[in-house]
Structures are given as C-alpha cells and as structure tokens.
Amino acid sequence: MFDRNLRTMIDDVKGGLMDRRAFVKRMIAVGLTAPMANQILSLGGVAMAQSPNPYKPTKRGGGGPLKLLWWQGPTLLNPHFATGTKDQDASRIFYEPLASWDVDGHLNPILAAEIPSIQNGGLAADAKSVTWKIKPGVKWHDGQPFTADDLVFNWEYATDPATAAVSSGTYADMTVTKVDDLTVRITFEKPTPFWANAFVGAYGCIIPKHLFAEFKGGKSREAPNNLKPIGTGPYKFVEFKPGDLIRGEINPDYHMANRPSFDTIEMKGGGDAVSAARAVIQTGEYDFAWNIQVEDEVLLRLEKGGKGKTLYAVGGDIEFIAINFTDPNTEVDGERSSMKTKHPILSDPKVRQALALLVDRESIKKVIYGRAGRATANYLNGPEEFVSKNTKWEFSVEKASALLDEAGWKAGSDGIREKDGKKLKFLYQTSINGPRQKTQAIVKQACQKAGIDVELKSVVASVFFSSDVANPDTYAHFYADLEMFQIPMTQPDPALAMRRYHSRYVATKENKWQGSNFPRWVNKDYDAAVDAADIEIDPIKRADLYIKCNDLMWQDNVMIPVMHRLAVEACSNTLRPALSGWANQTDNLQDWYRET
Amino acid sequence: MSQYILRRLMIAIPSLLGISLVLFVVLALAPGDPFSELATNPNVPPGVQAALRAKFGLDDPIYLRYLHWLAAMVHGDWGFSFVSRIDVDTLILQRLPTTLYVIGSAQLLALSIAIPVGVYAATRPYSLFDQLANTFAFIGFSLPTFFTGILFILVFSVKLDWLPFVYTEVPGSGIPWVLEMIRQAIMPVMVLGLFQAASMTRFVRSAMLDVIRLDYVTTARAKGLGQTKVIVKHVMRNAMIPVVTLIALQMPAVFGGAIVTEQIFRIPGIGSLLISSILANDTPVVMAVTFVFACLVVLFNLIADVLYGWLDPRISFR
Predict the structure, then answer these.
(1) ipTM of the complex
(2) For residue A473, what is the nearest residue in chain B, using CA coordinates?
(3) Fewest CB within 10 angstroms: A48, A225, A470, A587, which?
C-alpha cells in the first residue's frame, strides 16, 4: 500500500526534511492514530519528541489548594490492587510510572530519563527488549533513593500469583533485569511491538521496594503502606479515608522543575455524578470532577453562566451491541450458548446486517450522549481520526425490512415476522444504567417497525460484570441473543482490545466463562490477522492488520458499534488540567496549574 | 432487676446468632461480584478476577464461610473489606464520629422542636397554634429527605450561595474550624432534624393529650396549682414515658446513620459506608455494619424496657 511512501517519509523526518507534526498529520489522514504514528516513528528510528504539557507557573507551590471530586470514592491506594480507575487515579497522586501518555498520545517521561527509541539504543530492532534509563537523583518521599531495584521488585511483586495483583497481566510474559542502578532491561518472550505497557501509565505506577519487600505474595494485604503511600509523586501523603477522602501536600523535593503548582490536594469521594458536576460547574465548591456521565441536556443547563465547564477527552472507548453466534436457548452438557450449537436466527448474515441497519446511532447520540459521543461504524476507534475508511453505517428500516424479506422472514398476522413457524424474536440484555436503557428503547422501537420482536432485559452492573461461574446473567455467559455494554481502551494500542475476539478465547463452561470472546465468533481470517499482528515488528504492516481486523468485524456484523464514547470531566474555569483520552485523569497531575 | 437483665442478655445471644445467620445467608446468596469492575478492562486478564475470588474465599460453600466468619467474630476479628482490603472495624470506627455528630445533632434538634411544640399544642388542642403545628408536621413527614435535601441545596447553595453542599472533614483547629464544621453541617442536620421533629411532635402531642384528661390532673388543678406547674410536673412527667421509649428505640439509628441524606450531602458516615459497600458487593463490611446495627437494636430494646420500669413503677420485672 503506502508502504514505500511511508519509509521515505520516515527518512525525511529522520533527516530533518519533514517535521514530526506534519508526519503525524499525514498518518492521521490515512487513518492511523497519533500515538501509533509516533510508535511508527520510534520503531523507524526517530526519537520520540519530548513534548511536555503546556505549563506556565515559574515556581513550585503557591497555587493554593486543589480540590478534586471523584463521585466514586477511591477505596485503596496500592496501584497493583486498583480495581477501578478511581483507585488508579488516587494512587497516581503519590506514585508515578516511568512515563505517561500525554494529550497528543505521546509518551511523556516521568521517572524515565528519556523515552526508549532505536536511536538512543533503548529499543531492540527485533522488538524483543526495551531498555529504560531512569532519572538520576529521584527520591522516595521518605528520602530513600529510587533505583532500578525498585523496578525489578515491582515486576516480581505483580507477577507473583499469590499477590493476586490486578497488574499481573501488564507484567506477564517478560523478564525485568537490572543493568545498573539507573537502567533496567525488559526482555519479552515474543517480539512485542507495543512495548510501552509495563511501567507506563496507570498500571505502571511503581511502589518502593524497601517498604513492600516483606509483603510480597500471600502477605500483600498486611503491608502498612497500602494505606500510607510513600511514592515519588508531586504530592506527599497526609490522610486517607477509604471511600471518602484523600489529602496530600506538596512534595518540596519533587524531581521536576517548578512542579507541582498546588500546595495541597484533596480528593473527595461519594455522591453522584450530577451533583458532582453541580459542585464544580454551578457553585464552584470544587475545581474538578471526574467521569461526568450525565445527560448532555443537564450539563448544558448547568453550564449557563456557571463557574466551570465540561471538558472532553477522546480515547477509544466503545459502546456496542454484541451478537451471539451460538444458541442461548439450547442446553448442551449443562451449558447454554455452547460452541456446539449455532444461533438458529443470527447465524444468517442477512439478519445481522438488518439489525445493524436498525440501530439509529444519530438519534442515540442526539438524545442520550450529546457531546460525549460520536457515531461510528468501527469497533476500533482511534483518538479522533482512527476510522477505517472502508466502513460505513446507516439507519434504514426499509433496507432492513428488504433484507429480512430476502432472508425468508415474512410478516405474520401480528406484524412480527416468522419463518418455518418460528417467530423473529430476540432477547437483548445490558447492565442497569440510564443511557443504556434509553438506547435499548430506541433500538427496540426501530426493530418493531421492521417486524422484529425484541425483549429487553437489564441486569445490575455488579452481576452483569461478575466472574461468578454460577450466575447465568453475566455478560460472559451471554444467555441472550444480543447484549450491550462498553469496553474501554486503556492504552493507545489495539493489541489487547483486538486479541479478545480470537477464536481461541471463546467463553465456555470449560474455561469457566473466562474467555474474552463472548460473542463466540469464529473467523479464521481474523484469527490469522490477530496472530500476525501480535508479532509483526513492521509498524505499517501491523497497523494494516488491525484495520483488517476491524473491517472483518464490520463485515460479519459481530458487533454493532453504538457510540464512540468520550471521557467527560467537569472543570473550573481557572483550572488548567492536563488530560488525555489515553490516560487516566490524574496521569499528568504534575502539570496541572491554575490560570490567574 | 439484675436477674431480669441477665436473663434478657442470655436470650439475646441466640437471637443475635439467628440474625447473623440470616444476614450472612442472604448476603451470600445475593448475586454480584466485588471485582466486577475488572471485567471489561482489556489490561486485566479474566483469570485475575477469578484468582481474587478464590483468594478471598468467595467460591467456598456458604456454611464454611459462615463458620469462618463466626469463629473470627468470636475472637474479635471482624474481617477485612474486599474492596479496600482494610480491617472492617477500622473502617467503621473512621466513620462513626461523623455519624454521631451529624445524626446526633439532628436528633437533638428534633427533640428541642418536638417537645415544646407538642406540649404546647396539646395544652391548646384545636387552637390556631395546634392546627399550624399539625399542618407543618404532616408536611414534614410526608416530604422524603431526598426531596427536602435537594430543595435545600438548590435554595441555600445554588441560588443563595450561603452554604456548601459537600461535607468534608476540613483540617485545622480553633474557632474558624469549629464554625466551618457547623456551617457545613447545617443543611444535613436541618433536613434530618425537621423530618424527625415532624413525627415526634405528633407523638408528643398525643401522649400529652392521653394524660392531660386524667383525673389526677384535674385534682392537681383543683388544688390550685398553676398551669405551668401542672403541665411540667404532673402531665409531662407521665406523658414522657412513651416518648423516652421511642427515643431509646431510635438510638440505633443515630449510630447507623442516614443512608439517603448522607449520600446527598456526601457525609462520610456509617450510612454512606453501608450503601457504597452494598453497591460494591463488599460483603464483610455490609455484614459488619448490619450486624452491629442488629446488636444495637437488641441492646436499646433492653435499655428501653429497663427505663420503662424505672420511670413507671407500676411495671415490674419478672
């Protein structure tokens, strides 16, 4: 494709004939994400730009208090145990990774001296190892030096099965070794084109060896510092009340010049999203509120003449309707939706296509998500411009009806289509959540017009997303014909998101429904593309493979994308937070300041 | 008397055991998973969620889990929260002062409104004051606290900008700190206190009316005692007996917190701990809070009974 062109372009950037920004822009134009374009450059031998967030203050401190409102109160402060983003966000105030993702999706060095690249010798050409150099002179809050031993320890800690760390996946299939006091090498078992996962971002936060060494494995819960974090971050720990309040004070020895700007930090938890938005936008009691998943109409009303506004960060979170390829109504060996069955109706591609035509994404956006959503045909959505150019979507009851007619489904006396005495009827499930129930209603209405009877079911979120083997209502059991929820993209690389639907990961009774391929979709071409992309070192070919994966899902209508969702935050008019759709909200906390 | 108390305490043991068993079984049978947030995160392999369940014993049979819990409880070990991995007793003790402060103040406010208003209304039944008091009492206990809470926020925070509606423990000390603590507690205390006061006023009024018509009151009046003396010394003394019982029975609620109001004003009390633990399926915390609540109910029932006998010598303990 544009393979040769691209190589010349990379050389141009290397030689200084083209600037990075222009390169990234062109990559976006052909459908690549900005982060991916940057990874292409780094694998192509061009050093990543050190592009820190804009930061105006010229001295450390003096910015007064920073008051954050997280309507789900953080419950623990060890990044390796963080069950939700709320816990990661809170841990990040005190702990830091080697690098974080910035607004443009670049890697922004935090504890690293520089971002590894082929040029500086950090990246191996075969993508089997990464060497990180850390900043000299960084100290933990208790004055101990931060060294390579801490990094090695974090890898050991997370991968010890007895620790039961949620970060175990981030540190799996690799070995971390100390080169010298300020250098570590990560050696991957397989070529790993996306090398920036371990020690990067939310799960990459590093805890001190000298305080946690005795509490590795089975004793991990007993570590006193689980509650009193001693990190390297911009703020030092003062107080923590789980689910309620976290307080920190400025770290006078912070390793970045002039940072942080605020003297104290407070993160208050509890309540609900609407009143959190109100406390920031309307009354100005707080500076920043997280994850404001509130109907746009309400936000617009609050914003009128208020003291704050909403901010939107574009990531890759996708809300979708998944289609069951197996039969949820037939039990085989004590399991419904068994791989030994085929869905009697939905295995017909025409019916799936008709369903995709019946999801009115424009109305859903208008009525429910507003500024916080984008209609899309793709399952894989980049920061903004990642649109596989080959896909499209439309809403048309007529076309859907025609397709169903073609497939042999004729309208019965009650207006519901039938074929061979079988009614065209689906069970459509999701978790209990205002916007989701509204979406269900919109889809049901369109389906009724086309002669499809849809039965709606909603399950409490903590049950729907449970791993309880005995509970038939989980999304992984998928004892329904259709189901809808959101899968977040936690880093700017599609590897993990796309690997999910490889046929070897189908969810079955045998693997206790732990398989991630819940639609139980099997497609050889897709499997081949994912397998190839997993070890493909050439970034251009790899990007092509993931676009192909997305297109295969679109052709087969495995997932009907409903909405590409943006992160919504409420922010005071004077606060300048550094946000990124590819990172958690507090991931670049050191760069926050207040405009005076 | 001491024999009576001892016997009541002995009876309390099997009933508390029964309560704990029912609570535990209901919680264990309720579906849900404290680690459900991990499910859709592509960074976390599904095995992690299952490993955590296994590690915390969530996959063991219910009777085993109950016996483990009971054995630990007898030793004073309340277990630890699945969500924050902190000992449950620490978690509860952290929340208790706030609950006592806010709910306690609300109860005091309710009493200081209900008793004078109720007594005065009863001395002049069907007067204008009585009618007004009745009307406000009806409005007061018909309006749920989530409604009045939001109404107060809209009026006093959003429109007038007088009071903050997020309750946080501010650091500091001295007079400004005390004033700030009072300022942010005004709205929740008013919401809860007025709601309580409404129903208590009705109760005080009817208790007074029951007594005020008795012959001994007429006798007291016939002796030539003044109105105040008759009401305070003769009527109120006896009318307050059922009121004291009512207050004693409401004491567990002071410790248990107010779920809805705490949620609205983000008060870090026991009520908000309970609701967030229920939502997160954090069974050890839910179990501990509800069980402590059950113990308090049993205890204050006993106290009410003892008080009743002490206040009213006609009742004897057997």
Answers:
(1) 0.83
(2) B31
(3) A470
